[in-house]
Specification:
This protein is α/β, with parallel strands linked by helices. The protein has four domains: 4-18 and 173-315, Molybdenum Cofactor Biosythetic Enzyme, Chain A (3-Layer(aba) Sandwich); 21-43 and 137-171, Alpha-Beta Complex (Molybdopterin biosynthesis moea protein, domain 2); 48-133, Beta Complex (Molybdopterin biosynthesis moeA protein, domain 3); 326-398, Beta-clip, CATH 2.40.340.10. Helix content is 19%, strand content 32%. It is built from seven helices and 27 strands. It has helices at residues 4-12, 154-162, 201-211, 226-239, 256-264, 297-315, 370-375, and strands spanning 21-24, 32-33, 37-38, 48-49, 53-56, 66-74, 88-92, 104-107, 111-114, 119-122, 132-133, 144-146, 167-171, 175-181, 185-186, 197-198, 215-222, 242-246, 266-271, 274-275, 279-285, 288-293, 326-330, 342-351, 357-361, 378-382, 393-398. A hairpin with a 5-residue loop joins strand 24 and strand 25 (357-361).
């Protein structure tokens, strides 16, 4: 057996960040910026008001309350507007350009407007710059706005739109093909024949791929023949950035996945010192990474979380490949007989009002017991030889 750390190192050293693509801003949320973003425009592009009110010469408000002549109204988006001289004011709406001569705004709540007389009573004194948003106050041409490696969220898209960007250079979401193999597997809801089981892994893995922010491609359920398995992997390598298979990575007599991948790919077959998910395979078909996960449902999910997901995040340009490890209080005693493996136990629970996690068993811990994995909100990490009493502290990997 090899350690999880060595297995991860082997995989992560062999996957590469996908080449950058130009992507419309509307599709960039959750993607990673591939190049530094430098501003070419000022934001805001002109001085404007942050309030509805009256644009004035600040010095004119000394000794307020006082009355000023109103020379016009300036709406947001106005292309032309009057100048404001001493003794005058311009009615102005939020976002409208500051008129020449004015250097402050008095908010409308501190004024009384006489539309018939075209005058306004200003109740307070203001300083120059009051409620004025100056040109370039947020961004100026040449500013480094976001560095390469930034995970783009809604606010980033808004900033990019504000400087006229319509696309961003990002690392694309990997297109991940998912295939299940095995003559015993069936799709759909019809009656099962003797020896048949329903294929849950493919559906589960496609959803895990989507939850991680990537694009899942269903490569189907493939029977245990060399021809069918060969076609599935070669076809997947043509249309996908990575392939995940479920089943056929152990030492069974009818496991043709190993036979095929040893022929068409550069593969490593591993026994990792963890439970579940001990068997794991990794290699490349051409330059497309292939992750061979075990067939037991829980093993498949845990293997995805510990091995495939970090590698796919690297391919997508993320700097943080792994989920965080947190401390939690366990309601049950944790430990296992010595077996040279780290156990990953399915737990449910969450943070309390202070942010401290409390966890309990999610149910049966067999690698075939998918219901407990579905309930789990965390994996408790229990190294060989560790014993934690009920109420004690353990390490967890949150799954939510």
């Amino acid at each position: 057996m090899i350690s999880l750390e060595d297995a991860r190192r082997h995989v992560l050293d062999r996957v590469k960040v996908l080449p950058a693509v130009s992507t419309p801003l509307i599709d960039c949320a959750g993607m990673v910026l591939a190049v530094d973003l430098v501003a070419t425009e000022s934001v805001p592009p002109f001085a404007n008001t942050a309030m509805d009110g009256f644009a004035v010469v600040a010095a004119d408000t000394t000794g307020a309350p006082l009355t000023l002549d109103v020379v016009g109204t300036i709406a947001a988006g106005a292309a032309t507007y009057p100048a404001v001289n001493s003794g005058e004011a311009a009615r102005i709406m939020t976002g409208a350009p500051m008129p020449p001569g004015a250097d402050a705004v008095v908010m409308v709540e501190r004024t009384t407007y006489d539309e018939a007389a075209s005058t306004v009573e200003v109740e307070i004194e203001v300083e120059a710059g009051n409620h004025v948003r100056n040109a370039g106050e947020d961004v100026q041409p040449g500013d480094l706005i976001f560095r390469a490696g930034t995970l783009l969220r809604a606010g980033h898209a808004g900033v990019m739109a504000s400087i006229g960007a319509t696309n961003a250079s990002v690392s694309p979401r990997p297109r991940v093909g998912v295939v299940s193999t095995g003559d015993e597997l069936v799709d759909g809801g019809g009656p099962l024949l003797p020896g048949q089981i329903r294929d849950s892994n493919r559906r589960t893995l496609l959803d895990l791929v989507a939850e991680a922010g990537f694009v899942g491609i269903d490569l189907g359920l493939v029977p245990d023949t060399e021809e069918a398995i060969t076609a599935a992997f070669l076809d997947g390598a043509e249309c996908c950035d990575a392939i995940i298979s479920s089943g056929g990575v152990s030492m069974g007599a009818f496991d043709y996945v190993k036979v095929v991948l040893d022929r068409i790919a550069d593969m490593s077959w591993m026994q990792i010192a963890i439970k579940p998910a001990k068997p794991f395979a990794f290699g490349v078909v051409g330059d497309v990474p292939v992750f061979g996960l075990p067939g037991n449902p829980v093993s498949s999910m845990v293997s995805f979380e510990l091995m495939a997901r970090p590698a796919l995040r690297k391919m997508a340009g993320h700097a943080d490949w792994f989920r965080p490890m947190l401390k939690a209080t366990t309601e049950i005693a944790l430990g296992h007989r010595p077996d040279s493996k780290t156990h990953y136990l399915r737990m449910e629970g969450g943070p309390d009002e202070n942010g401290r996690w409390k966890v309990r068993s999610a149910g049966g811990q067999g690698s075939h017991q998918l219901t407990a994995m579905a309930r789990a909100t965390a994996l408790a990490v229990v190294p060989d030889g560790l014993s934690v009493p009920a109420g004690g502290e353990c390490e967890i990997i949150p799954l939510v």
